[in-house]
Specification:
The structure is a single chain. By secondary structure, the chain is α+β, with helices and mostly antiparallel strands. It folds into two domains: about 250 residues, FAD/NAD(P)-binding domain; about 150 residues, no CATH class. It contains 14 helices and 21 strands. The two termini are about 25 Å apart. The relative contact order is 0.20.
């Protein structure tokens, strides 16, 4: 049986950040990270196309929490303690400079996730943090009054520790294990997925993108805007991914069959479109794309309305003009199914947040147990926000674990 002051289960972003932070607070701590896979930090490695979208240049916590469909209220205080500004400074102090792209996403200046992986690897070695891979945790026992509060049973050997952290991500096994320990787990459902439109003609425009569109999920209050991408299976891009995140629970209940409306020109109002009959009177409708709509999409939209390709704006009938407005402002699509990014899979669901003290990310049910990352019912939109929640949780948990051992 092995013993350590702190054992962290899960070798991902939150787990490594917590271990390094705890060791920084009290350097002589014995700390072990247990990871069931053969590799650690896999999501860090693959995120952002292998560049690692480490955080987002959003420095006001009140604004930052708007990117979290679940966990916004709980993260407000933690973000004041350790938010993007502190993340940038932390990485800088450990030899990793981050840069900001035009959309606010932040990456290592090297454009390689290996920079962050190497940073963590070097720090764990320097601090004497032991990392064991291919170790599957089967159970743990909690002893409230004992000095050694935790006994961890794995498929290889058992461990004891004074403090334990679960940073296991979206692990159904761990969630089921926590249920047996009295935790309320919100059943996980996918978040951040694309909308499938099987055999819809618009899929022939695959690869085409629109800089800004607005997506509405019919019969709900859910809408989102941003770039939209047409794929060979349906619709994707930030506008769709954001809608999927906010609607994760509702769309799961509907078994991913629902209707959406797409406003291809959200910044253009109906009167402006009506004025085209005068402003563009002699221009042919089909062959003159407007509002920065890509040519192929413009032809797709207008072909649904006008059979005469030579027709100009002035000769459009009232009904054709109404159809044009409807197609531009509220194209309707029936979604049947979703596609998730398996490598970067994000879930909505996890341990209920009311059971966590967010000053330290410590369990209210089992003091000495800390939880951070996707094991909790916290998830965010794309853009570095999920990693920021992991860094924040890892930092506050690691700080508290280090202090408790002083």
């Amino acid at each position: 049986m092995k013993h350590a002051d702190i054992i962290i289960i899960g070798g991902g972003a939150a787990g490594f950040f917590a271990a390094i932070t705890a060791a920084s607070v009290k350097p002589d701590l014995s700390i072990i990270i247990l990871e069931q896979s053969k590799e650690v930090l896999q999501k860090v490695r693959i995120s952002g196309g292998g560049r690692c979208n480490a955080t987002h240049a959003c420095f006001d916590p009140k604004e930052l929490i708007n990117f979290y469909p679940r966990g916004a209220k709980e993260l407000l205080g933690p973000f004041y303690s350790f938010g993007p500004s502190q993340t940038i400074e932390w990485f800088k102090n450990h030899g990793v400079s981050l840069k900001t792209e035009t959309d606010g996403r932040m990456f290592p200046v090297t454009d390689s996730s290996e920079t962050i992986l190497n940073c963590f690897s070097d720090l764990t070695k320097k601090m004497g943090i032991k990392v064991f891979t291919n170790v599957k945790v089967k159970n743990y026992h909690y002893k409230q009054s004992a000095e050694l509060k935790f006994e961890i049973i794995t498929d290889s050997e058992n461990y004891t520790c004074n403090q334990m952290m679960l940073a296991t991500g979206s692990s159904p096994f761990i969630w089921n294990l926590l249920k047996t320990q009295g935790y309320h787990v919100i059943e996980p459902v996918p978040s951040l997925f694309t909308f499938n439109l099987p055999k819809h003609p618009i899929c022939n425009l695959m690869g085409l993108s629109v800089p800004k569109a607005k997506v509405y999920i019919k019969d709900t209050k859910i809408s989102s805007d941003g770039p939209l991408l047409i794929t060979h299976w349906g619709l994707s891009g930030p506008a769709v991914l954001k809608a999927s995140a906010w609607g994760a629970g509702v769309l799961a209940e509907r078994k991913y069959e629902f209707d959406i409306l797409v406003d291809w020109v959200p910044d253009i109002n109906v009167p402006a479109i009506n004025q085209l009959r005068e402003e563009m009177a002699k221009k042919k409708v089909v062959s003159n794309p407007l509002f920065s709509i890509p040519s192929r999409l413009w032809q797709f939209i207008t072909n649904n309305i006008i059979t005469d390709r030579e027709k100009n704006w002035a000769s459009l009938s009232k009904m054709e003009m109404t159809d044009m407005i409807n197609q531009l402002k509220s194209s309707s699509f029936s979604v049947k199914g979703k596609t998730t990014f398996k490598e970067e899979f994000v879930t909505a669901g996890g341990v209920s947040l009311e059971q966590i003290n967010f000053r330290s990310f410590q369990s209210k049910l089992q003091p000495g147990l800390f939880l951070a990352g996707e094991v909790l019912n916290i998830d965010a939109l794309t853009g570095g926000f999920n990693f920021q929640a992991a860094w924040t949780g890892g930092y506050l948990a690691g700080t508290e674990m280090g202090k408790k051992q002083e």
